[in-house]
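Possible regression after last week's pipeline update?

I re-ran a chain I had predicted before the update to compare outputs. Posting the input and the new output here so someone can diff against the archived version. Not blocking, just want to make sure nothing changed silently.
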Amino acid sequence: MPGAGRDPKSTEVAEVMTKEPYTFAPTTTVVEALSMITDRRFRHLPVVDDDKVVALVSSGDLTHWLVQDKVQEIQNLVEVAGKS
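New output (post-update):
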């Protein structure tokens, strides 16, 4: 690990940061982003547009969005079933 054994009071972030992190574009789907995070075991990924970081997305952000989407889908199905 890059930071192992270093004094956090004197170690600069540049010494321990990921030099060339994986990134994805704003047009990447939630499923694609979650797949990348899961497969590579990342917790966060920068969203880059025109070589500028525009956001930082976490695995929790993506999971929350997927769960919310499924909750809405289930609610819609219950409403449709109730009208039958």
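Follow-up from reviewer: compared with the archived run. The radius of gyration is 19 Å. Marking as no regression found.
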